[in-house]
Specification:
- The chain folds into 2 domains: about 130 residues, no CATH class; about 150 residues, START domain (Alpha-D-Glucose-1,6-Bisphosphate, Chain A, domain 4), CATH 3.30.530.20.
- Helix content is about 50%, strand content about 20%.
- It is elongated.
- The two termini are about 35 Å apart.
């Protein structure tokens, strides 16, 4: 169920960017869009494509999908917009001035996108119902990874919070300030650093660790990591549940998700690097990740060593 939810979240993000791209095209190049779908390129259609009913609607839906932790409502909004588009295309068939072949292709494309919008909205709506309603501005993320080591080893590495910057890409430092207290510093959107104090509220050796930020922290967050024996007793399933309120509430969440990575994607990447460090002792970087310009397919002899 969790993997299925992750899949539909990724599809939703793709639909969000598609919506923004289409909306921008309708607003900035309505003539090209009119020609593409087979309708007359005249002032009336250009104005209509730029209007809140079409171009601006698409951009608003895309922004909503990309900035909400559960975008089911915005996806249902896309479905309503899809039905409006289909109605407009059907009406366009009545004019002899329009290109019927292009209209047919455009209609088929919209039908395909509509089916995907409906499926994704249904699945994320079900996920939202099962998980329960979230507080306004609060992001809840659950992710897991299987590591080829015993729970005791995995727990021991995770228990030392000062190891976290080795696999959490945006985390700059963690300093222990007491038996159960720690100070965290991370890189936020636009390169701005954010800091907070956290305390461990539950620690069961080789089973789980729970933490939360202390009252008054700029970044309110809490979470639990569980260490479970893998299938057939092989390896360890590391399951992380994270809740956090980004600085600035919902507006801050929207800015962070558009300017930075979404929390679910960040956690996926962090757990992938955690697995690599546990199993190989380093974070494996592809040739493409360390060369910005054109580069040969042959990887370098040395890969980046986690610091």
């Amino acid at each position: 169920m969790e993997k299925e939810s992750q899949t539909y979240e990724k599809i939703a993000n793709g639909l969000g960017w598609f919506s923004i791209g289409l909306g921008l095209a309708e607003v900035l190049a309505p003539g090209a869009i009119a020609n593409l779908i087979g309708i007359s390129d005249d002032d009336r259609n250009r104005t209509l494509l730029r209007s809140p009913l079409y171009g601006m609607r698409e951009m608003a839906a895309g922004a909503g999908i990309l900035t909400q932790s559960n975008p089911a409502g915005w996806l249902w909004g896309r479905v309503a917009g899809d039905l409006m588009d289909l109605s407009s295309l059907a009406a366009a068939y009545r004019s002899d001035e329009n290109d019927k072949t292009r209209l047919t292709v455009a209609t088929a494309a919209v039908l395909g996108v509509t089916a995907l919008d409906v499926l994704c909205a249904q699945r994320l709506s079900q996920s939202s119902t099962q998980d329960g309603a979230e507080e306004s501005g609060t992001t809840h993320v659950t992710r897991s990874v299987t590591v080829n080591h015993a729970p005791e080893e995995v727990y021991s590495f995770w228990h030392d919070f000062q190891n976290f910057p080795r696999f959490m890409q945006h985390l700059e430092s963690v300093q222990m300030t007491g038996d159960r207290r720690s100070h965290w510093r991370a890189q936020g959107p636009a390169g701005k650093s954010v800091e907070w104090e956290a305390e461990t509220v539950q620690d069961e050796p080789n089973r789980l660790i729970s933490w939360r930020s202390v009252e008054g922290s700029d970044v309110r967050n809490s979470g639990t990591v569980r260490f479970e024996s893998g299938p057939n007793g092989k390896g360890t399933v590391v399951r992380v549940e994270l809740d956090y309120d980004p600085p600035g509430g919902m507006i801050g969440a929207a800015a962070a998700k558009l300017m930075w990575k979404a929390p679910d994607q960040m956690l996926d990447d962090d757990l992938r690097r955690f697995k690599q460090i546990m199993e190989t002792g380093e974070v494996v970087k592809s040739d493409a990740s360390i060369h910005r310009k054109m580069h040969p397919a042959q990887p370098p002899a040395l890969v980046g060593q986690a610091s």
